Amino acid sequence: MQNNKLKMCVGALAVCSLQLLNTAIATELDAELVNGNVFLYGDNIEVGIASNGAFGSEVASPRGEMQGKKLGYISDPSKNNFNNGYHGDFFLPQVPEEGWGIYLDGKAYNNNRNQQWSGINGSIISTNKTNTTATTTWQSKKPLEGDGGKDQLDGLQVTQIFRIYKVGLAVIVDVALKNTTSHLMQNVYYMRTVDPDNNAEQSSASNPYSTTNTIMHQGNEKGGAVVVARQSTTSQASNLVSKTIPSLLGLYGQGENSRVAQGGTDDVNFPYYRNPK
């Protein structure tokens, strides 16, 4: 839905896991680096990651269904190698909105695809593929303790590993927050936010792409947090996949410290997650 965001936040100084879910997971399994951007390709999914670690490439995809176009996230939930069409792009249509951030000792840092914020300097440091997975790693630059947060995070190092499976339903982001200093860090949060556009590129005035966004669960001792953006088969694109399979994008944060929200809250408003709506 326009101007209606999904957000996930994890309050932990350790390792957390985020999953972007769709009823599917792009061509031959691969991870390809192009001008600081990475493209992940699976059987039924294509994902583009910008140089600042946000979803949504800054350059065109070199191949696949989105060849020659910038890529955020598309998938074929029928798992038929895109022969029946696809859902998406979920991130780049309209005004692109996807990003992530860190809240540390009362200050927020954000890397956002749309506004090209670069509050956390870093880059893609590796790509890898096996017979079953394609991965890429983004890491912040070596932290410089005492720099006032101007370029780095005062000794906090951020590592994000993006992973897809050849056959699967999710893009998984494993996040490690490492304290490289000798002092205690408190009130540390990691966040991702997205304005889900589901099938905006394939929509029309008579066939809108609005979504219904719902918080399914907040993190507790029984499990993590989930928020989803649903689009019915009667309000999405006309290709076969869209006619028969409802489009769904979800954020899942692992662990009892995870929180999710839906709505147009400010990207940097991390305290909001203590009592999300």
UniProtKB/TrEMBL annotation:
<keyword id="KW-0732">Signal</keyword>
<feature type="signal peptide">
    <location>
        <begin position="1"/>
        <end position="26"/>
    </location>
</feature>
<protein>
    <submittedName>
        <fullName>Uncharacterized protein</fullName>
    </submittedName>
</protein>
